[in-house]
Design goal:
This protein is an alpha/beta fold. It has 10 helices and 25 strands. Bound molecules: flavin-adenine dinucleotide (FAD). Its EC number is 1.-.-.-.
Length: 447
């Protein structure tokens, strides 16, 4: 009798779960791999949900793999919800009544929208924005309305505002702080985002939070009341106050240690034998210096999924994220950040900031205040930098003056640096006269 093949069960078909499945298929061609997901049969790019809503893409366009791909690669898809873990028997119960036995189990259950128990949050027309059912609810509930209130000054909030705006519905934003996304952006960059919002004629109430949501006789939202005491009439409310790890399944196994997320070691192992966690739902027990314990990004989900597959395949590999990277778009304003780029001044770190006097273009370069003046990070708004070049400068601890002198190497937009390089260096020379560097003659452009 031949032994049954090694069986990996993955709960969640987001980027973390799928990256693990594809990597394990490569490392262990004979393994049986089952992917369980309650949201959709096929994996799709969550980051592109807003473009589906705005009609730029169809749902089929945001599936990175054709539907035949899964069968071809012997990846078994099960469209149902996993309801309970039974670690002693190495089994998982599913809502379709079946039970799956595993040799290894990956929990890749992602995040869920975080609400704050506001009165009225269960009224019809109130929602978060995370998954396909949120997309469906949005399409259904904002049809024909005049105004929607978006609560939260972060990346999902601005996406919701843009989605409503694209349909001619007035989005009104409630932002707790003095600027948009000031938890992540220094005041100068945040002010540029504020300006972008203003240019799109989106009303914002800064320093304002949601107090309660008011309903009509049919149980539908009719207004919100803010902490400033204002009552704002609206027909829809988007709660974009962050996400938290989805622990519903994890909580069915008391021996599985959780905190904000499922606690994992550097190999993404949980406290249960043969059980791993990766992606948004995982919380690193001992994150490396300067790293966050819970990473809620697309590329970190992919890296974690790929890394844990090696350990599951018997080639233990610790998770090392490397240099931080994030990007976003605030209406037409593109944003990128690399490396250590704190919001507020930090011991041992300073920054050089340049902003175009007329246009929404800005660059901030962070560097150590020690003699090395090693560059630690970048913020770019309205211009695009080359990822690999920035990473290399950060990794090699390149001095600030060297980076400034070679800035054109990070140039993604061919027309940008010839036009602005001299102005950037001039601004640096004004801010740091004791380290002034030579301004290169303007290069001619040939198109
Ligand atoms: C609107 C939006 C825009 C975003 N934009 C960006 C961006 O521009 N850049 C970026 O880096 N990140 C972005 N993110 C974040 C990024 O999408 C997430 O970090 C990433 O998708 C997380 O991947 P994951 O595999 O960990 O989990 P998820 O993608 O959340 O997948 C987990 C899956 O598991 C399923 N599941 C959970 N529990 C069970 C269960 N018990 N049984 C069966 N299935 C279950 C869930 O339904 C879900 O489908 C965005 C997120 C949102 C919501």
């Amino acid at each position: 009798m031949t032994a049954a093949p090694f069986h990996l069960v993955i709960i969640g078909n987001g980027i973390a779960g799928i990256s693990c499945a594809l990597t394990l298929r490569r490392l262990r061609p004979e393994a049986r791999i089952t992917i369980v997901s309650g949201e959709s049969l096929h994996h799709y790019a969550r980051t592109a949900l807003m473009y589906v809503y705005m009609g730029h893409l169809r749902l089929a366009d945001i599936k990175p793999y054709e539907d035949w791909f899964w069968r071809e690669n012997q990846l078994d898809l099960v469209h149902t919800t996993a309801t309970a873990l039974h670690p002693a028997g190495q089994r998982v119960s599913l809502s379709n009544g079946l039970t799956l036995s595993y040799d290894a189990l990956l929990l890749a259950t992602g995040s869920e929208s975080r609400f704050h128990d506001w009165p009225g949050q269960h009224l019809a027309g109130v929602q978060g924005f995370y998954n396909l059912s949120d997309l469906e609810a949005l399409s259904r509930d904002i049809h024909g309305i005049r105004r929607g209130v978006v609560v939260g000054g972060g990346l999902i909030g601005i996406e919701l505002a843009e989605m409503l705006h694209s349909r001619g519905i007035e989005p009104l934003l409630l932002v707790r702080d003095a600027h948009y996304w000031s938890s992540s952006l220094p005041p100068e960059e945040a002010a540029l985002v504020d300006y972008q919002i203003k240019q799109n004629q989106i009303p914002v109430r800064y320093h304002t939070e949601l107090r309660e949501i008011l309903g009509d006789a049919q149980g539908r939202v009719r207004a919100v009341r803010t902490t400033a005491g204002e009552e704002i009439a609206c027909q829809w409310v988007g709660l974009a106050t962050g996400v938290r790890p989805n622990l519903t399944l994890a909580r069915t196994a008391p021996a599985l240690e959780t905190d904000q997320g499922i606690l994992v070691d550097e190999y993404l192992k949980t406290t249960l034998p043969h059980v791993y966690a990766a992606g948004d739902c995982a919380q690193h027990r001992l994150p490396a210096a300067g790293e966050v314990p819970i990473e809620q990004l697309w590329y970190t989900g992919r890296m974690q999924g790929e890394t844990v597959a090696h350990t599951i395949a018997g080639q233990p590999a610790p998770y090392r994220r490397g240099i931080w990277f994030n990007s976003a778009k605030f209406f037409n304003l593109e944003y990128q950040t690399y490396g250590r780029a704190p919001v507020a001044p930090t011991d041992g770190l300073s920054s050089f900031y340049w902003q175009h006097p007329m246009r929404q273009v800005a660059l901030r370069i962070y560097f150590e205040t020690s003699d090395s003046q090693a560059v630690t990070g970048f913020n770019a708004l309205g211009l695009r930098l080359r990822h690999a070049v920035c990473e290399q400068w950060i990794r090699q601890r390149t001095p600030l003056t060297t980076v400034l002198a070679r800035l054109a190497e990070a140039n993604f937009d061919p027309e940008f640096f010839p036009r602005h390089e001299a102005a950037i260096v001039r601004a640096f020379n004004q801010q740091f006269p004791q380290q002034a560097i030579a301004i290169r003659p303007k290069r001619r452009l040939f198109f």
